[in-house]
Amino acid sequence: MGWTMILKDDFGVIAWTRRAGNYLSLFLLLSLFSIPVQSDIVFHKDHRFSWKAGQWGQCIGEECGSGGIQTRTIWCVHTEGWTTHHSHCQHMDKPESQRHCFKVCDWHQDLFEWEVSDWGSCVLVPFFSNELKLRTAECITAQHGIQRRQVHCVRTSNRTTVTLRICEFFSQKPPVEQACLVPCPQDCVVSDFTSWSSCSKTCGAGLQHRTRHVLATPMYGGANCPNLTETRTCSSPVNCPAGEDEYQYSLKVGAWSECRLPHHKDALLSGRTTVDFSTSSSENNTVMLHTPASHRHSHHNHHQYHNHHHAHVHNKYPMSWELEVGYQTRQVRCTRSDGKNAMLSLCTEDKSPLTYQACVMPKDCQTSDWSLWSSCSKTCRSTDLSPGYRLRSRIMTQIPVGGGKRCPVLEEKEACNIMGDLLPNCPRYVWRATDWGECRILPLLSQQDRRLANISILCGEGIQTRKTYCVQVPDDSAPHHRKEVSRPVNARLCATEEPPSAVQHCSIPCQNHCLLSQWSTWGACLHDNCKEPQGKKGFRQRRREVHWESSSSPETCPHLVESIPCEDPACYLWQVQQEGSCIPNKHPCGPGTAVQNVTCVSSEGEDLPITHCAGDPPPTEVICEVACTADCVVGSWSSWSPCSHSCATKTSEGRQSRTRTVLAIPGKEGKECPTTPALEEWRVCNNHPCMVFYWEASAWGPCIEDTSMNLNKTNFWNGTPTCAVGVQIRKVSCTKMGVGSVISKRCPDSSRPETVRACLLPCKKDCIVTPFSEWTACPSTCIPQNTTAATQSRYRTIIQRSANGGQECPDTLYEERECESLPLCPVYRWRTHKWHSCSLVPDSVRRGLTGAGEACGNGLETRGVSCVGESSESANMTECLRWAGPMPPQIRECRVACKDDCTLTAWSKFSECTGCGTSTTRKRSLTGRSKKKEHCLNEKLYPLEETETCPCDEFLSQPYGNWSACILPDPSVSGSLQGWMSHREVKECGQGLRYRAVACTDQQGHLVNPTLCTDSGYMVEICHIPCPLDCKLSDWSAWSACSASCGSGLKIRSKWLREKAFNGGRPCPKLDLKNQVYEAMPCHSECSQFEWRMEPWSICTINTVDDLPACGEGVQSRKIRCVKKRTSGEASSVEDSLCDQEEMPPRAQVCFLACPNDCVVAPWGSWSNCSLQCDQGTTRNRSRRILRLPASENSACPELVQSEPCILNSTCFTYQYRVSDWSTCQLSENAICGQGSRLHLLDCIRSDGKIVELQRCEQFGLINKWRLSESCVVECPVSCILSDWSPWADCSHTCGSQGLTVRTRRVLQEAHEGRPCPSQLSQTKPCPIRPCYLWLLSDWSTCAVEGAECGEGFRRRNLSCVVHWGDWPESPPQPVEEELCGDKLRQQIQQEMEQPCFVPCPGDCHLTEWSSWSSCQLTCLEGRSFETTGRQARSRAVIIQVMENQGSCPHQIFETQPCKEGKCHSYQWRTGGWNNNERTVWCQRSDGVNVTGGCFPQKRPTTVRHCHPPCTKPFSHCTPSGVCGCEKGYTEVMTTHGFLDYCTRTPGVDNNKKADVKTNSGRLKPGPSQAQDLFSEWTLRPVGPDGRVKLWVYAVTAVGFILILFIIALSFLVCKPSKTTKTSPPPQKPLTLAYDGDMDM
Fold it and tell me: Measuring CA to CA, how many Å separate 205 from each of 231, 239, 242, 1146, 1444?
């Protein structure tokens, strides 16, 4: 579908039609948008006002196409240019302000495009930077030029041209011209001449010559090459002897004609057969000089197997080859040294020269058609923009014979996919890694620890490894799934990137380590559940706390609660507190009542509502008695003594007692004191049986599915998604201390641990495996007979192991299979036919040349060769060329015996060999008349004995080169390559093997296959790599005593160094100055394990006199025992010295028993507390109350309140916490390193330094701010971890003694306090020394002319098979049998083995040999080349031997060829020093070679120096410095301008008469000259000896000039004349550069 538009002249649209088949055919409407329209469109109303229109605006429209609108501004202007109201202009003439237009869209750019022509030729820019001089005059190597091209905008549909503005809308116009370089004309450049040759004659007059050669041929219209030869006459001082013939005669032969078949009808002329001798020089040059240009493009031979198992076995190619024998002739003549022909007999003495010979009819090389192009080697778009290449080949179907055309190139290579824009992106390769393997701790252990460790229980930090592998990443542009597991490829493809880490740290959780507090005291007898009390049985419990627990462990600490059963439990008790004193009922003393406060409290002492307490509450008022003055007064009860037993057994039970004492004895009529037994009370205590019960919990079981919990598949546990929530179960049983499990009722249910808890079910993990890698490549060619079948393998890698019931991994990770049955290489062989009879030159030819003669002499015999297959069927010759090895010879020389020939017997058999190094011979003898013929007896021509050396099977082996490194046996087997994290420890030491190459030579010292001497080609020797020995430390010493004898401290144990690390073993940990490493643990020493235990005071004993009442002051005593702390009441005593003597309580004290009627007070209460800080000036108090008032008011009671000052460390103490030092980092018992914790302990210290119970500090309200543990890390000693060795690489050389193979490994984990990495990350091993066989092409022989002295001949070269050691030229190659190098014929047809040449006869004018190729030269501009291919030249000069032959001389010739790696050369004129006003000038190339040509002739320096003007004065001459000077004995007199005026005689010099004349003439000089003569007498001479004015003269002149200017300016300022007066300046001599030395002549 297209658009057609009909346009008006003003670009407005008249009509649109849509028509198929034409794209937007008249898109010129775009110009509405882009062509600037004349803005001055004027319509006259009158001559003063006119309309003016602006430019059309942009085309605006909602859709693209013709619906757009363009607008412009219209205004009315006056002729003077100012704008006025539009009413002044005529309205009917107002131009349109709006019109339709075509709106351009992006898709329109497909309809139009730029069309550019090729660049035109480079045209010289005549003028450059406004210089009027043509640039060619100073052209160095190239000149700037311009090339132009045509650029059009065309429709893509029919390629018709439209306006440029349409395409410019979419893209910028391509440039129409560009700078280019026009090379300068380059003249021919030739070398310097060689030195002159020797004279052509040893006597008389002769010629000698010298030559030069072409270095650069003329280009771009440069000057032609000059003559390359110079000839001059020479004469020898020796005269030629008189009468000797001045001419030499030489037999000269022409070139052999082309080979002809004898059955051509020979033309009969005058009864004789004539032979066509015509050989043109062009033929000469073309017979052998086949050097097709294609051979120079030496393509890289990509020996690829093109499956040319040619299906075309039809008769497209020959089935056999036959050769034909023809003949060839040549001209023979006798030439004289002046170039004239002479009689043949003057040259030939006895036998006539050979003018004919048999030859093989030439056959050109024939080839098949080209195969199809191979696919391009570049199949994807890579970052480097190098092109790919593709190949095609053809095969030889006919071997060239007898000088036929050599084969053209059999393989062609061309670039393809040069830009590669349309190709897919090349695959990227990245490293991937498998999942991490299991966490292993063993590698962190030293050798010493490994022997001792129980590996199964190791825990803590370890290391885990994983495999890295290389994968191909799908192209970013192609859709792919991110989770797609890619197929592994060769790791070399990822070599540019750093592989991900293969080792990381990990940890195995250790068993829990708990630090527990002491047990608390037993609690009260309580119901198990106080909220629901049941029965009359309860429990008393004691507890302990966990001070510190190691992290991340599923195990729990031991039980924390113990309980014992008891009777009559009570959770809530009535608490009674007496509030007031006893108030007598009636009298001041006697019975009364006391009020008591009754509350209900819990076992912890909390107040509760009274409803909680069982039974009736105790009464709030109790009966009491106030002692009267005569009554006995008894003190209150003491506290209960400690219980005698901790529990009740069948034989004993616990008891405890309390006492009270008599404080006052009764008087008369007073109430009596109670009896002694009534002063003591006993009660049973700890009457519970001695049975301690606790709950024992087993370890948690595994996490199992909980069928009761129906949860979704994915849950969130602590914020992380999990697969499912399961349960863990453990067994909990009630255990009796020291007995075992009992029924659960015996333990309190409230402290029972949970038996079920939720847990995370581990996710099912299926095994994930990479896809199999590609199969390794199979041989692409056919398989030779009797070889083992090739195999190919592939592997895959486990990325993730299966876990928790996931799908198991496959068994097969490595697969191997035989390659698909490749075709066996076809078996073809050559079949030779019988030799034909010996072919001679036909009689007619022979007779025509030499007259009648017998048919005998040398000839050729041929045989046919055909190709047969395995079962002797005929086959194509191309198959044998490919598969059958060297072709048998088809032609050989033969001889038909002549009558005069020497006759010999047949050769005898060779004699038998007797051993290595011996030789074998065979013989023959002359027969008949030959025995008497003199020439037959010449054994050089007719040898009668032949000797051959015997074959030898003894070979000599000798070690070569250095030993390889010690190579340990490789533990890996095929397929373990894919093993999952094969955790075998890589052996780095022990017994290995080292290799040394063996050179195997035969008896002649030629290198042969090493398998003839050894199986492997190596000498192998056992070697040992010493094993690394780790640092060894002793075992741990015993723990030291606690550093604190009382309270918290540290105990220490240590190890010391026994052996240092050796051979790269694990280094020692950081040791202290004593070479020790230590461990510190917190410890606690009981400050005193013993305490004083006191019994109650005895009765107060008073010494009475007579019968006075026993009252007043007395003494009482008590027993004190030293017992172990925390023992029951009846504990046995120990020595008193074990208890603290300072704290020993008194054993006796003064007591007071009040007498009747005295005031009685209670014992003192306890002292009140001092302030916490024991502030100075504070006091503490204690008080007591009155128990019995005195009888008389006069007798007073003692003081009831006592106070004393608070004195630090005497009556008052402060307390503070103190912590011990940190321990070392504590790990679990089975951990080596990783996360641990360090601890310290807390003590409560009294201000006098004594350590007391922690409760004291708590009682004083001190807050413990100390953390008793913190986490720490013990660094893991990680040894170096290396990758496996790579496979051995291919040999660096396929043969010879220089071959090495290398393998490498890389560091996966650097060492950290473990074994360091070895320095050897690569190992080399010599390759077996295989002989290098090579066809060696000899140099060209000198030109040999057969059977004559000069004329046309051949130079030849030979192919020989040599063996060398691969380090040529150190070991020169040695010749060996040709079979070892392969097919000689095939090699020969690729080379030029024979070249025609010419040996000049004496007197011949001839060409020299080709000069060697000149150096490669580029065309450059300012030293920079703008081409990649250079040129080199060579030439042949003409040598004239006799002047008479000059007319027959050939022309000198030169040729060029392209070359690589050229250099830029520049040329520069060089000059020598002046000598007698002459010097040598030559042109030199930038590399120092002197040349002719190349330098600009215009810039050539002069070779002869002239003085300007010429030196015409008497006795003057031109000096070397180019100025006129005087002869010796004369002094120069100069003009003021520095030129020679005349020469005057130097005084005191004895001159001759000629000098006198000069002096006289000097005296007759006019006035000015006399003034100048004065200069020569001055000491300060203005002119130097070289005739030049000295520098100071110029300086003085300049200063004088400035002075004159200054005076003129000054006088001007002073005078200031009112009008200008014409004053003539003083006459001055004009300063001019013209030469005025002759003004006086």
Answer: 13, 9, 14, 159, 14
